[in-house]
Each structure stands twice: as C-alpha cells, then as structure tokens.
Prior knowledge:
Elements: E1 9-13, H1 20-30, E2 35-36, E3 40-41, E4 56-57, H2 60-68, E5 72-78, E6 81-86, H3 87-95, E7 100-103, H4 106-115, E8 120-125, H5 129-138, H6 144-158, E9 166-169, H7 173-187, H8 195-201
Amino acid sequence: MKMNSKGRAVIISGPSGSGKGTTVKALLEARPELKLSISATTRLPRPGEENGVNYFFVSREEFQKKIENGDMLEYAEFCENIYGTPREYIEQCVSNGEDVILEIEVQGGMQVMAKMRDAISIFLIPPNRQSLEKRLRGRGTETEEVIRERLAQSYEELKCAEKYDYVVVCGEMSKCVSDILNIIDSEKLKSELMQDYIKENF
C-alpha cells in the first residue's frame, strides 16, 4: 500500500510580479507527474489551442449553467469573456491520486480555499519591494501609469498572504521549487492522512 495515495489540490497564488508562471513551469519540469489545472473559458480557441489541453472551451450559456450548478470553484470575467476553474477536473485528479496545481490569482485562490478545505494553499512573494518593482518594470511593455497601478494592486494583494497556509519566497528558483515540493510531500505525512497506512501495516 502506498503511504498516502490521496491526491491534493495545490493553490499557488501571489501578486503580479511574484513569479507564479515561471515557478509553476519549473515545478512541472522538476516533478512531471504533477498535473496542471485546466481552466474553462467562454472565449474562442486561438490557432493551435486544443479543447481539454489549453482550456475547456464552452459557451457563455454553458458557463452560466456551471456557475448556477456550483460546478465552478472560482470564476471571473475579463475582457468580455469568463474564465474559471471547473470543480470536476480538480476532483477527478485528486480522486485519481494525482496532485494538481492551480496557478491562480489571489481572489480566485481564496474562492477555491472556501470550497476545498483540504487544498494546500501557497502564497508566493518576491524577495523584497525592489525586486517586485524590477520584475514589473522588466517586462518593458507597459506605461509608467500602468506599472504604478500594478504595484499598488500587488501591495494590496500582499495583505492576503496571511489567509494562505504557506508563504514561499520566490527568489532563487531552485530553492523556491524545493520549498514547494517539500510542502506538498510533508502535507501527505500528516497524522490524520497516515491512519489508513498504520491500520494496513500494523
């Protein structure tokens, strides 16, 4: 018997500039068996995108029905399209014994936490204020006004860190990835989750 065969949903949130995307990519490279949550969206597929791979593409009517039926763990409207996390896909991964990563904005992360009490929630932060500003400016695609707005939003989102189970500093990537994998592994060794193993073997 495996020590703990139950999968876990792992929420990874953080303010803009915290390094969520880069971290999740590195996590999947370090541990390929991790699954990545697939979002649903009402927007049309772009060239090369596949349904069930990049997104679950659904109509607005179908998305609204999912919301009404409680089938979405979280959702938000952006640029006239709705995006969200389908409950069924996450629960299927977990029941199959797979750990599934939800790379998600702060508000969405808190929505998921309210509906999945056993999810592991991790809040990423950059090493300091200077590195946060450098990352946002480093994109080189936004005006000074937009950068200032994003910085203000990031500082506001940092206040939500206390609502998450863990806070991980995203500085050196190898250390950040190691910290997150250690969290996932240690969570599976919690006493209440090891009771079946104890009964089976003793």
